[in-house]
Amino acid sequence: MTVHQNETTFIEVSDFLLNCFVRSPSWQLWLSVPLSLLFLLAMGANGILLITIWLEASLHEPMYYLLSLLSLLDIVLCLTVIPKVLAIFWFDLKLISFYACFLQMYIMNCFFAMESCTIMVMAYDRYVAICHPLRYQSIITDQFVAKAAIFILVRNVLFTVPVPILSAHLHYCGRTVIENCICANLSVSRLSCDDITINRFYQFAGGWTVLGSDLILIFLSYTFILRAVLRLKAVGAVTKALSTCASHFILILFFSTILLVVVFTHMAKKKVSPDVPVLLNVLHHVIPAALNPIVYGVRTQEIKQGIQRLLKKGW
């Protein structure tokens, strides 16, 4: 259907084409294998973590409920992005419907923000546990986790709703090739013949406000944790705590890749191949998901013991 308005022809778009790595086609070949392995690791590790926490009564505590939430978010993010990317790599299935594209866009933005908020709450949980151990049981309760989950859901669902709505209501003039492996907001919006200043502003200002505030609070929590740990007299305890904090910081660095990509591409512009931010965007949806259950879960003694008990029962 074609509509004439102010001498501009608008075409009703029913499908988009995800055209990723066209400048570096060889990337698809070598990236598909590690990407599929990371996807299997992410799904398997998070699945095992969820099952262990669900079946082990000793793990029915606030800290592990937060871990479960993080694993659930990781699984959804992986399933939203990686299978489609692998389908493009292996079977050249680049076509994605209009509504599926904006659904993917919303889930990516919403669940990414929810994951950021969850990590922030988990950092606060560790801060209370280490800096105020005598008050931990009274502060971090099941009610606290329930309220935190509601806050995480409501804040990020409402905040990210405008992202796909703003993009979906743009007029598209027949250009349907998305230069990306995923339906990223700005990658799709650039195809329209409307002014996308509002889309850009909401994406950058809103993203920096929400994700930036989460990262600041996470950093402050671990700063207080490190200060408390360094006051400990037991050398073994200090080493163990520093090792844990270092692992968490590495994960947070991976998790904040999307912010680094935005800054990196904005500053470099044409000096860097457009395929680089596309690659980082794809990896960002699978690397943290694969590492989170290992660092936050398997390295926790109680989780390891719970998995061992389940394996013994299975045998």
Automatic annotation (TrEMBL):
The chain crosses the membrane at residues 27-51, 63-90, 96-123, 144-165, 208-230, 242-266, 278-298. It is found in: Cell membrane; Membrane. Residues 45-296 form the G-protein coupled receptors family 1 profile domain. Keywords: Cell membrane, G-protein coupled receptor, Membrane, Olfaction, Receptor, Sensory transduction, Transducer, Transmembrane, Transmembrane helix. It is a multi-pass membrane protein. GO terms for molecular function: G protein-coupled receptor activity; olfactory receptor activity. The keyword Membrane applies. Signal peptide: none annotated. GO terms for cellular component: plasma membrane. Its main location: membrane. InterPro entries: GPCR_Rhodpsn (IPR000276), GPCR_Rhodpsn_7TM (IPR017452), Olfact_rcpt (IPR000725), OR51/52/56-like (IPR050402). GO terms for biological process: cellular response to lipid. It comes from the Eukaryota. Gene3D superfamilies: Rhodopsin 7-helix transmembrane proteins. Belongs to the G-protein coupled receptor 1 family. Putative odorant or sperm cell receptor. This is Olfactory receptor. It comes from Molossus molossus (Pallas' mastiff bat). The lineage of its organism: Eukaryota, Metazoa, Chordata, Craniata, Vertebrata.
